[in-house]
Specification:
InterPro entries: RidA, RutC-like_sf, YjgF/YER057c/UK114. One of its GO terms (molecular function) is deaminase activity. This is 2-iminobutanoate/2-iminopropanoate deaminase. Belongs to the RutC family. With about 130 residues, the chain is of the alpha+beta class. The protein has one domain: 60s Ribosomal Protein L30, Chain: A, CATH 3.30.1330. Helices cover about 20% and strands about 25% of the residues. The chain contains two helices and six strands, in the order E-E-E-H-E-H-E-E. The protein has a six-stranded mixed β-sheet, with helices on one face. Helix 1 packs parallel to helix 2. The chain is globular and about 40 Å long.
């Protein structure tokens, strides 16, 4: 049986999906973007701050499921401009221990929801 994971400490879903789904010991998160969960405002003034908010939103979803970034097995990073990769990677890297960092892919896409610059999802395990 699957368990739906939602927290007010991350942006509320804006469509027919949930922030995450827990099945057994596996957690599948929806992609997080830079929406401030307190105000509901999009925060995309600079790529480093945007990425930090995305990671903080992801952190809140993981915490609601009783997990941390140490539980993350794989991430998917979608970016609107590969020129932002280094800045995104610099912020992203502060959330993981390099020796135990998850697998990941980073893909440049034409557009993202609300025309943000970065969206990150994760698969984690207890």
């Amino acid at each position: 049986m699957k368990k739906i994971i939602n927290t007010s400490k991350a942006p509320a879903p804006i469509g027919p999906y949930n922030q995450a789904v827990l099945k057994g010991n596996m957690l599948y998160t929806s992609g997080q973007i830079a929406i401030d969960p307190a105000s509901g405002e999009l925060k995309i003034s600079d790529i480093s701050s945007e990425t930090k908010l995305v990671m903080e939103n992801l952190k809140a979803v993981l915490a609601e499921a009783g997990m941390t970034f140490e539980n993350v097995l794989k991430t998917s990073i979608f970016i609107s401009d590969m020129k932002n990769f280094a800045a995104i990677n610099a912020v992203y890297g502060t959330y993981f221990n390099e020796a135990t960092a998850p697998a990941r892919e980073t893909v440049e896409v034409a557009n993202l929801p609300k025309y943000v610059n970065v969206e990150i999802s994760a698969i984690a395990s207890l």
